[in-house]
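Would you kindly consider the sequence and fold I have copied below?
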Amino acid sequence: MLHHRFSAAVLGLSFLLLLLLSTTVKGWRPWRKNATSMAAADLEFGSSKKYEGSSEFVKLKYHMGPVLTANITVHVIWYGTWHPAQKHVIREFINSISHDSSAAPSVAGWWKTVQLYTDQTGANISRTVRVGSEKNDRFYSHGKSLTRLSIQSVIRSAVTATTKPLPVSPKSGIYLLLTSPDVYVQDFCGQVCGFHYFTFPSIVGYTLPYAWVGNSQKYCPEVCAYPFAVPSYIPGLKAMKPPNGDVGVDGMISVIAHEMAELAANPLVNAWYAGGDPTAPVEIADLCEGIYGTGGGGSYTGQMLEAHDGATYNMNGIRRRYLVQWVWNHLLNYCTGPNALD
């Protein structure tokens, strides 16, 4: 009986590991996997079908799962070493989502596309998004090299801490784990810049929607902070100036936006996505990878804006400018953003 129970436990754990490693929603990166073998012209004007106006290839469907209709609170875990100014840029971006008075084109205007998604009762995703509680993990409690499972362990530590634990809010909370530039996460750079999923009760104690996004400044800014850093294998391509003066953090902003939009529309991976395989869903931000303006598609970012200091951006926040990728509008059947020219 003891041996049987042990075998069952091992089998269950093996299944859990397989499930996590095969279904964690997604890797976001601007280049296709074989990008290094492509010609510069192909990268610039690639044959990707994820163009701003392409609708015939997309079969986005609602699979009856929940979306985040309650006011959304983003609980942030700062893992590693963070400068206060970096935290401020990210906090202001999140709080800008609900700040309607920002100058157009605005982050709040970008979120209006996300709000179009509804649950089975017809309720829309909430327009209210704010930063909630924060937890600092300055001493790298789980090391400087994290696996996908250990990311869930970091979240568990944050919600079960003896002092100032993060609140547990399964229906309205998003748990955002942000790792500093000296932290490497499984598949970082090679496959992912960020991903989202939900925590397992067997690990964390609760089912909580979460996302991880890494600061790529040290490991791969040309991959995860593009276009503020560019790959060396594309001759003549010039990096753009980041609007907040920090290549790593400005690059993170768009990935954070990407993951938050998809968490809102597909928190338990059973709501809005395209494709017949729920273990590999194509979600509302995946459909617009690398598109920041009108005409975007392939590896062309689209038409963006330039600040007086030469920085590139496409949206205004409360007091700052940001570069944020567009998301899929399922009513119009193409990618949209507040800086669209048509």
In short: The first helix runs from residue 2 to 23. The CA atoms of residues 74 and 275 lie 28 Å apart.
